């Protein structure tokens, strides 16, 4: 039977049949060492994963340019929602123009201005988020 050198204590041991890639012998100290290393690796994996999640998502989208097209074709309700949002934006813009051309509705001008600037702030923070990655 194949023997291996324990990665913790350096003593030769025989891996169990169920775990042919076992790196540590069955001594309690070596098993706790194995768990320590495993936890450390897991932690590093998680950090790596979190830091790279945003990048990975963008990379994935870059590699799958047809994704959104496909997504939209498979999720008509999403498209409909977006269309409604766009319609809201359109009517806001119309209102803005209307307000500019008629000074008699001054309060509305102020209201639509604030709505408008809120919308542009949102799109700006989107841009920032993309640049920050
Ligand atoms: Zn050992």
Number of strands: 2
- How much β-strand is present in the residues? under 5%
Summarize model confidence as the mean pLDDT: 78
Into how many domains do the coordinates divide?
Answer: 2
- Biggest beta sheet summary: 2 strands, antiparallel
**Topology as H/E string?**
EEHHHH
Tell me which ligands are bound. zinc ion
- The multimeric state of the shown protein is single chain
Overall shape: it is rod-shaped
- Share in helix: over 70%
Structure class? mainly alpha
Strand order of the largest sheet: 1-2
| First and last CA, distance | 52 Å
Number of helices: 4
Question: What can you tell me about this protein's structure?
Answer:
- The protein is mainly α and 133 residues long.
- It has two domains: 4-63, no CATH class; 85-131, no CATH class.
- It contains four helices and two strands; from the N terminus they run ββαααα.
- The protein has helices at 28-63, 67-74, 76-101, 106-131, and strands spanning 4-5, 12-13.
- Strand 1 (4-5) and strand 2 (12-13) form a beta hairpin.
- The longest helix is centred in the middle third of the chain and has 36 residues, at 28-63.
- The site of zinc ion has 8 residues, from loops.
Topology:
Blueprint: E1 4-5, E2 12-13, H1 28-63, H2 67-74, H3 76-101, H4 106-131
Bound molecules: zinc ion (ZN).
Residues 6, 8-9, 11, 24-25, 27, 30 line the site of zinc ion.
Short description:
By secondary structure, the chain is mainly alpha-helical. The model has no long low-confidence stretch (mean pLDDT 78).
What labels would you give this structure?
single chain; mainly alpha; 2 domains; 72% helix; binds zinc ion
């Amino acid at each position: 039977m194949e023997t291996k050198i324990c990665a913790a204590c350096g003593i030769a041991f025989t891996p169990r049949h169920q775990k042919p890639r076992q790196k540590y012998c069955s001594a309690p100290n070596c098993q706790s060492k194995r768990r320590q290393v495993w936890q450390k690796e897991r932690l590093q994996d998680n950090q790596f994963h979190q830091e790279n999640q945003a990048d990975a998502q963008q990379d994935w989208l870059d590699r799958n340019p047809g994704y959104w097209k496909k997504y939209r074709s498979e999720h008509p309700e999403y498209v409909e929602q977006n269309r409604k949002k766009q319609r809201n934006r359109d009517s806001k813009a119309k209102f803005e123009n209307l307000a500019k051309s008629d000074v008699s509705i001054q309060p509305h001008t102020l209201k639509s201005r604030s709505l408008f600037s809120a919308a542009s702030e949102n799109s700006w923070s989107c841009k920032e988020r993309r640049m920050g990655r």
